[in-house]
Amino acid sequence: MPSLTSPARAPRPARGARRGGPVGDAALPAPGSAAPVRRRGRTVFRYAFALPSILLVLLFFAIPFIANGLFAFTRWTGYSSVITWDGLSNFRLLQQLGVLSHATEVTAIYAVTSMLVQNVVGLALALAMQRTTRGNSVFRSLFFIPVLISPLAAGYIWSAALATNGPVNAVISVFVPGGFHYAWLGHNLSALICVACVDAWKWTGLVTLVYIAGLNRIPERISEAALLDGAGPWRRLRSVTFPLLAPALTFNVVITLVGAFSALDVVFSTTGGGPGDATAVLNVALYNEYGQSFFGMASSLGFVITLLVVLTAVPLITWLRRREVQM
Amino acid sequence: MNARPEKRPWLRYGLLGLFAVPWIGIPLWMLLVNSFKTQGDASVLSLGLPSHWNLVGNYRTVIDQGSYFTGLGNSLLIAIPTILAVLLLGSMAAWSYARSRSRSLRVAYYCTTLSIVLPPAIIPTVYVLTQLGLNGSRLGYMLTIAGTRLGVVVFLATGFIRTLPVDFEEAAALDGAGKWQIYRRMILPLLAPVLVTASVMLIISVWNDFFFALFLLPNTNESTLPLTLYQFASTSTHGVAWNLVFAHVVLSSLPLLIAYVFLQRRVLSGLTEGGVTG
Q1: Cβ pair B129, B144 in contact under 8 A
Q2: B250-263: average pLDDT
Q3: What is the reported pLDDT for A157?
Q4: Strands (E), A35-114
Q5: Tell me: the pLDDT tens digits for A293-307?
Q6: Which residues of B touch A287 (CB under 8 A)?
Q7: What is the DSSP string of B178-238?
Q8: Which intervals hold domain ABC transmembrane type-1 (chain B) (predicted)?
Q9: Beta strand A84-85 with A74-75: parallel, antiparallel or unpaired?
Q10: Do A8 and B162 touch (CB under 8 A)?
């Protein structure tokens, strides 16, 4: 996503120069006064075209986003009609209840696991299916299927597959003498990891396509040159492919991580937050507070998600972009 | 495309196939085959064929008790106008953002693209909708979905329009074409490939949305498919009945899967070539 800005930057200086007025406009035979009028007319229609979109984004994204930063610090419940400033007490209370740091930690583990699985599997699949051949197209469309299934449905499928008597254990039992009956979703850590993997399973197909697009954007001549220089396949992968794949990597890592911070659906349909609260990510905790009409505290948890996103995405983008190689 | 012939494609295909079995094959087969079984059979979660086929019974139960058609109707009623509106309004705004030098429009553009990365603030959204008198209504849900999904369309379309030369638009304007005409006759057709990519992403995210629906659509008669699936699977009598839950999962996933069977080429090439990464 970041690299879309770079091709766009090219025409800008030209237009910027024309904006200076005298230089560009002097060339026009039109009388001097015509230009500003036409320009103003143009600007009005620009605003008119953008207005519906701006209003929607403002009302349903920007205003709620900013309001969340305020509501997080208020006492606001369904039991009283007044909303009052309450400082940090929501966070303090959530911490005392054992929700705040626990849910944050669970969310972080969930998001990192999901991000790693998606990117490792997605990259491996992309390398294996990079070329657009008939056989690869079949596999590409096969591996894309989970993306179309709702995360909720993915959760139901895998909670059955991971059940004690489910196919996952059945397959493992083939290799383990005496059978294998592990309750994947019944133990705290394995439940969290498994739920994160289900989330990853659902989205890996999309990550794969982004990597394929990135791989096919690498000029053939560069890998050919490396080949002629005697670089082996591993060396070509490490020294040519990976550095030039960096924009796709940046995009995938950031999008998958940020997306997983706001996870809810997969948790709802697999463990519902359990066992205990082992998989209660921030949004699940938020829904619980909302369900009890503690809107202020729910906002506080939403604010923590925002903080997580901003505090990881910004440094991550900066760091990853600095490592990107310009072609 | 590639001059070098591949040395061992079958080894690669073999490995891909080997991976596809547990990754795609087993879960989907388990889903399908168990949705045909009786409850007792399905509770074993085996991968074998049903000893007793209960296909009609299961799917009829889902349709009768799982409010499948309510969900399908609501999903269609919500997704189609929302996605069309997002494509139209997003591409209109993108044209402005791509061509304007105005500072305020630039701020609006960045604000809109930020909505792709930043998490939705659901509680204040409920508050805003309540203030507008739209809380709990389909319209409120649709507007919220539109406001949070515009970012993708605006981002992709603005980037694309910026690469197009402005001369044609100016020529058309000199010939007396109106702004709407230029947008309708020039910009929109040129944007077609970008809008295909955007609609694929929109359809996947809007059709499968559960998060916003959970908060914004509390009335069961307005439930979308993911909500009806959740309500069906959460009721204690069905929750343990994998055959019924699976039948609902199959039916809920069917519309997109059917569309995918016919459009997979467009979908995949749209996503790989449509410039998700730019």
Answers
A1: yes
A2: 92
A3: 95
A4: 74-75, 84-85
A5: 999 999 999 999 999
A6: 214-215
A7: -HHHHIIIIIHHHHHHHHHHHHHHHHHHHHT--HHHHHH--SGGG--HHHHHHHHHHSHHH
A8: 72-263
A9: antiparallel
A10: yes
Burial (CB < 10 A; 0-12, 13-18, 19+), residue B187, is buried
- On whether the CB atoms of residues A153 and B253 are closer than 8 A, the answer is yes
Closest-approach residue (CA) in chain A for B104: A47
Task: Give yes or no for residue A11 having a pLDDT over 60.
Answer: no
Burial A97-133 (b: 16+ CB within 10 A, else e): eebbebbbebbbbbbebbbbbbbebbbbbbbbbbbbe
CB A212 within 8 A of CB A140: yes
Give the closest of B112, B124, B260 to A53, CB-based: B112
Give the residue from chain B lying closest to A201, CA to CA.
Answer: B23
Contact criterion met (CB < 8 Å) for A2 and B278: yes
| CA atoms of A145 and B267, how far apart (whole Å) | 11
Nearest to B179 among A45, A143, A212 (CB): A45
CA distance B93 to B106: 11
Per-residue pLDDT at A184 exceeds 80: yes
Nearest CB neighbour to A60, from listed B144, B264, B268: B144
Would you say how long chain A is, in residues?
327
Contacts (Cβ under 8 Å, ≥6 apart) of B205:
B149
CB B254 within 8 A of CB B42: no
For each of the domains in chain A, give its residue range(s) and CATH number, in order of start. Answer: 14-71 (no CATH), 89-322 (1.10.3720.10)
* Residues on chain B touching A78 (C-beta within 8 angstroms): none
Structure-block tokens of residue B141: 């849900």
Task: Give, in degrees to the nearest 5, the angle at Cα A302 between A300 and A304.
Answer: 75
Which two structure tokens, joined as six digits, stand for A149?
Answer: 């299934």
Q: Is the ipTM of this complex over 0.85?
A: yes
CATH fold of B76-219 reads MetI-like fold (1.10.3720)
CA distance B216 to B204: 19
> What is the DSSP annotation of A133-178?
-HHHHHHHHHHHHHHHS-HHHHHHHHHHHTSTTSHHHHHHHHHSTT
- The pLDDT of A145-173, averaged and rounded, is 93
A43 and B100 in contact by Cβ < 8 A? Answer: yes
Beta bridge partners of A75: A84
Contact A255/B at CB under 8 A = yes
Residues of A in contact with B12 (CB under 8 A): 128
pTM: 0.88
With CB atoms and an 8 Å threshold, state whether B124 touches A53.
no
Backbone angles phi, psi at B41, to 5 degrees: -65, -45
User: b or e along B205-221 (b: 16 or more beta carbons within 10 Å of the residue's beta carbon)?
Assistant: ebbbbbbbbbbbbeeee
What is the Cα–Cα distance from A82 to A72, expressed in whole angstroms?
Answer: 15
- Does the pLDDT at position A59 exceed 80? yes
Indicate the residue type of A98. G
State the smallest CA–CA distance between residue A110 and chain B in angstroms. Answer: 16
Using CB atoms within 10 Å of the CB of residue B247, give its burial: 0 to 12 exposed, 13 to 18 middle, 19+ buried.
buried
